[in-house]
Design brief:
disordered N terminus; alpha+beta; disordered C terminus; 2 domains
């Protein structure tokens, strides 16, 4: 008779792998299942779970009731409610066994409470349709054990008495071995293909980036040009600075932030270029994104007069009168420009840039 842990995963995979067709989507996709369990003591344990397809939250586990909450309607639609009830019941059995097993290990090895055990498993589907599976176990926020998918063995990240002890128990535990075997026997990839089929619309969603360029003057001899890009989806994006039409190579003067999420499931980032005030060069922030197709978004940074004004106002308070005269001249020049020309300075779409 199969263990409840293995039955749970087998049922999950069987129910998700219902009949249906799916069309290939471009790109690399990753399915992740995350579990975080906090052991306050031997009798008080809290477990949180989360399922992600790329950056899309599929569902989560209520830490009080251990109920599954589905976040996307297309995840629940292929399965009747009775099947979800069965999954939840078996999931509770698995979590009870997991907590009992970890508590037993902690007491036998005198691990102090409280501590946190984390697991992450899933698979990656690459554009050439090759796949890769993975599984990790963490302890108190640190890498602990890694599953070697080629040899079907657990290797430890930290060589300690505790890690060696847990590694040996993982290898001896037949239930866990069955569970891992089911996960990595191509079932994760089949499950992801099913999700890609039902979630195609949201996965293919495209949002155009919105970009602005502004300046900061942290010191008298330095000008920071900031290109802020936000509101784009999907995540991959390319941002570069052009000096007089030529791309600025990587270096200490160029600093680009990581891609960060927005609350509306879009992304943002900043690219900062340090330049000398009044250096006489023209600068353009260039953005390339899948939503733009073959075009590029070009956002220029003003002209030499604007850079000069920024430097004067920020670094030479005694020259305020001269700066005011220059500002007035620039304002008058811009006043007579057509509105279309003013708008084009903030957002230019040009082919082949």
């Amino acid at each position: 008779m199969q263990s409840p842990c293995c039955c749970l995963l087998s049922l999950l995979l069987y129910l998700v792998l219902l009949s249906g067709t799916w069309a290939d989507l471009e790109g690399t996709f990753t399915l992740r299942l995350l579990q975080t369990t906090t052991f306050q003591n031997t009798s008080f344990v809290e477990t949180e779970g989360l399922g992600l397809l790329e950056d899309i939250k599929l569902g989560y586990l209520d830490k009080r009731t251990w109920s599954i909450h589905i976040c996307q309607p297309w995840v629940r639609s292929p399965l009747p409610q009775a099947d979800w009830d069965t999954i939840e019941n078996l999931l509770k059995v698995y979590l009870l066994q997991f907590n009992h097993m970890i508590n037993k290990w902690a007491m036998q090895t005198d691990i102090p409470y409280p501590f946190v055990a984390q697991t992450m498993g899933g698979c990656i589907l690459y554009p050439n349709r090759t796949t890769e599976a993975f599984a990790y176990v963490g302890y108190n926020g640190q890498d602990f054990l890694i599953f070697d998918t080629k040899n079907a063995t657990w290797t430890f990240s930290q060589d300690t008495t505790f890690s060696r002890y847990v590694q040996s128990l993982f290898h001896q535990n037949s239930t866990l071995g069955e569970l891992v075997e089911v996960i990595f026997d191509d079932t994760c990839v089949d499950e992801m293909k099913m999700l890609l089929h039902y979630g195609r619309e949201i996965l293919e969603r495209q949002e155009l980036p919105v970009a602005t360029v502004f300046a900061r003057t942290p010191s008298l001899g330095q000008l920071l040009l900031v290109c802020h890009i936000t509101g784009f989806y999907p995540r991959p994006i390319s941002v570069a600075w052009l000096r007089d039409g030529q791309e600025v190579p990587p270096g200490p003067a160029l600093n680009t932030s990581p891609i960060l999420p927005n609350a509306d499931l879009t992304y943002q980032l900043r690219s900062v270029l340090a330049v000398a005030p009044r250096d006489g060069h023209s600068y353009i922030c260039r953005v390339r994104h899948h939503s733009l197709g073959t075009r590029s978004l070009l956002i220029p940074w003003g002209n030499s007069e604007v850079v000069l004004i920024t430097g004067l106002v920020a670094g030479l308070p005694a020259a305020m009168a001269m700066a005011a005269v220059v500002v007035l001249w620039v304002w008058r020049q811009r006043k007579h420009q057509p509105m279309e020309e003013l708008q084009s300075r903030n957002s230019i779409l040009s082919k082949g840039a």
